[in-house]
TrEMBL record:
<feature type="transmembrane region" description="Helical">
    <location>
        <begin position="125"/>
        <end position="144"/>
    </location>
</feature>
<dbReference type="Pfam" id="PF04290">
    <property type="entry name" value="DctQ"/>
</dbReference>
<feature type="transmembrane region" description="Helical">
    <location>
        <begin position="84"/>
        <end position="105"/>
    </location>
</feature>
<dbReference type="InterPro" id="IPR007387">
    <property type="entry name" value="TRAP_DctQ"/>
</dbReference>
<protein>
    <recommendedName>
        <fullName>TRAP transporter small permease protein</fullName>
    </recommendedName>
</protein>
<feature type="transmembrane region" description="Helical">
    <location>
        <begin position="12"/>
        <end position="33"/>
    </location>
</feature>
<keyword id="KW-0812">Transmembrane</keyword>
<dbReference type="InterPro" id="IPR055348">
    <property type="entry name" value="DctQ"/>
</dbReference>
<dbReference type="GO" id="GO:0015740">
    <property type="term" value="P:C4-dicarboxylate transport"/>
</dbReference>
<comment type="function">
    <text>Part of the tripartite ATP-independent periplasmic (TRAP) transport system.</text>
</comment>
<comment type="similarity">
    <text>Belongs to the TRAP transporter small permease family.</text>
</comment>
<dbReference type="GO" id="GO:0022857">
    <property type="term" value="F:transmembrane transporter activity"/>
</dbReference>
<feature type="domain" description="Tripartite ATP-independent periplasmic transporters DctQ component">
    <location>
        <begin position="22"/>
        <end position="151"/>
    </location>
</feature>
<feature type="transmembrane region" description="Helical">
    <location>
        <begin position="45"/>
        <end position="63"/>
    </location>
</feature>
<keyword id="KW-0813">Transport</keyword>
<keyword id="KW-1003">Cell membrane</keyword>
<keyword id="KW-0997">Cell inner membrane</keyword>
Length: 159
């Protein structure tokens, strides 16, 4: 994939999320070992960061054409039908990601308007939810890049 723009922002977001999860977990283990108690905020942050890590990683996987799929049918089809299948796959992905972006954005906006607070720390709930539409938009962009590269033959689907 030389010459392709990589999913660098998503890689950084994922790496930072993973580092922070590791540090929070390590701090919690050390604190529990020394004091017998644990930090109460760790679960809320860890779950949030794990979701961010998942969506960022999925975006990187889309850009690098590394999502799990059965390529047997793609490789067995003649080029014209293969392109139709690639377009169909892209349309299905666009539909799903578009729905997640729309409803995730709507949920984040409603939480902002309602001034909902998180159950553990009492932080605004939209702080956590706003990442859902942002990262699914990134995934949508990476899906479009991947589809274009697959259709033009710049990205190989070989096993």
């Amino acid at each position: 994939m030389k010459g392709f723009p990589d999913a660098r922002p998503e890689r950084w977001i994922g790496a930072i999320a993973l580092i922070v999860i590791s540090l929070i977990s390590l701090g919690n283990v050390v604190t529990r070992y020394i004091t017998g108690g644990s930090f109460s905020f760790t679960e809320e942050f860890s779950v949030f960061l794990l979701v961010v890590l998942t969506f960022a990683g999925a975006s990187v996987a889309l850009r690098r054409n590394r999502h799990i799929r059965i390529g047997f049918l793609e490789r067995a089809l003649p080029p014209r039908f293969r392109q139709a299948l690639i377009i169909f796959q892209a349309l299905c992905g666009i539909t799903v990601l578009g729905l997640i972006t729309w409803y995730g954005g709507k949920l984040a906006w409603q939480e902002y308007q309602w001034e909902s607070l998180s159950p553990g720390l009492g932080l605004p709930q939209w702080w956590y939810l706003v990442w859902l539409p942002v990262l699914t938009l990134a995934m949508l962009w990476r899906l479009l890049q991947q589809t274009r590269a697959r259709l033009t033959g710049e990205l190989s689907d070989d096993a």
